[in-house]
Specification:
This protein is 71% helix and 0% strand. By secondary structure, the protein is mostly helical. The longest helix has 20 residues, at 26-45. InterPro entries: Pilus_4_PilW, TPR-like_helical_dom_sf, TPR_rpt. This is Type IV pilus biogenesis/stability protein PilW.
Length: 246
């Protein structure tokens, strides 16, 4: 489920350290926990799982009810292939804040990984229903990706269309629509959606590989040559570049 759009993006780094000269009161403990959770996120983003684990354990000691700490802990557990522990952190976060759309989105991604798709879809629907949540398009796009990975392309496209009604330039949903059209044999439509996707998204190996697949399906030799060359030149070490030799 690696292509879920930003499913585990939790918090951003806003502090560097926590120091104290004596015992902390309740408010100070909560703030210390928040900062340690942010530092853990920073270490997680940089691949330092040991430091991330240390900081998030400290955050949870300081404030066991900090939702962000449980979300970060779950993300670390997933990196360490500790699926059951990750699930317990998501469940705890949901008990603490059952209407928090970030919790709903992240837990849904976890459930989809575990093939609990209907429950995941229910949670994504709840997240997308929160008009104050600024990542509603992401929640719907993630739902679509979950269904597409299970082969339910038509249902997936329905979610991507809903996401695009919220944010017409949301690149992961545009990508999904291009893939859907290609999967269903609508090559010209796939190319049109791909053009919108490339205009909205950042060039990546997966983006260029999708373009290669569309060009092959369209028997467009010129476009295929351009995309193939660009993939090899820009991302020579990528899995997608290696697949060009298959």
């Amino acid at each position: 489920m690696g292509r879920l759009a930003g499913a585990l993006l939790i918090v951003t780094l806003a502090g560097c350290s926590v120091t104290a000269t004596g015992p902390l009161d309740a408010d100070e403990l909560r703030e210390a926990a928040r900062i340690n959770a942010e530092i853990a996120t920073h270490h997680l983003d940089n691949g330092n799982l040991a430091r991330a684990r240390q900081k998030i354990d400290r955050a949870l000691e300081q404030d066991p009810a900090l939702v962000d700490a449980h979300l970060v802990a779950a993300a670390i557990d997933l990196e360490l292939d500790r699926e059951a522990s990750a699930g317990r952190h998501y469940q705890k976060a949901l008990r603490l804040e059952q209407d928090n759309p970030r919790v709903l989105n992240n837990y849904a991604a976890y459930l989809c990984r575990r093939d609990q798709r209907q429950r995941a879809l229910d949670l994504w629907e709840l997240a997308a229903a929160d008009r104050l949540y600024d990542q509603r398009a992401m929640a719907l796009t993630n739902a679509g990706r979950c269904l597409a990975d299970a082969g339910a392309w038509s249902s997936a496209a329905g979610y991507w269309r809903r996401a695009l009604r919220i944010d017409g330039g949301f690149a992961p949903a545009l990508r999904g629509m291009s893939e859907y059209q290609l999967e269903t044999g609508q090559v010209d439509a796939a190319a049109r959606w791909f053009s919108r996707y490339t205009a909205a998204g950042k060039e990546s190996p997966s983006m260029l590989w999708l373009g290669v697949r569309i060009a092959r399906a369209a028997n467009d030799a010129d476009r295929l040559s351009r995309l193939t060359r660009r993939l090899r030149e820009r991302f020579p070490a990528s899995e997608q570049a290696a697949r060009l030799m298959e």
